[in-house]
Amino acid sequence: MHMTIAIISIALLITPFLFLLYKPPEGPNRFGEAARNVNFIDAIKRFFSNYFNFTGRASRSEFWYAMLFYAAVSFLIGFIDAPDIVFSIWSLITIIPFLSVSARRLHDTNRSGWLQIVSWFAPAGTIIAIVWFCKPPGD
């Protein structure tokens, strides 16, 4: 228990310094061309096909449809009262694509994908992240 607290404390102390080391690309369209809107099925396909793709952009529709899918399946798993291991497996399967689509969505607003770390500091950080995710594409 003490080791876990120590590791978390060290991680929280180091995180701000990572922002000093990272320099995002400069100029307009620094993360590529603006993403195009997609429908629900295509958003789910992109959610899983871009599993480790942290580059490029994700449109608002791609991001929010993916979040809707994630929330709906999570709710369904809880509603049918599945064993905890089912939700744990679901969480493990979706954590990487969740982070990658979030990074690509922030790229579409012309922000660094690393800024999704802000959402870990609830409640203010979560509100800030949601506002960024709702912003229109930036150049």
TrEMBL record:
Q: Does the keyword Transmembrane helix apply?
A: yes
Q: Which GO terms describe its cellular component?
A: plasma membrane
What does the UniProt keyword field contain?
Answer: Membrane, Transmembrane, Transmembrane helix
**InterPro entries assigned to the protein according to its UniProt record, in alphabetical order:** DUF805
Task: Report the domain of life of the source organism.
Answer: Bacteria
TM ranges: 6-22, 63-79, 85-102, 114-133
Q: Which PANTHER family match?
A: INNER MEMBRANE PROTEIN YHAH-RELATED, INNER MEMBRANE PROTEIN-RELATED-RELATED
What is the designated name of this protein? DUF805 domain-containing protein
Organism whose genome encodes this protein: Manganibacter manganicus
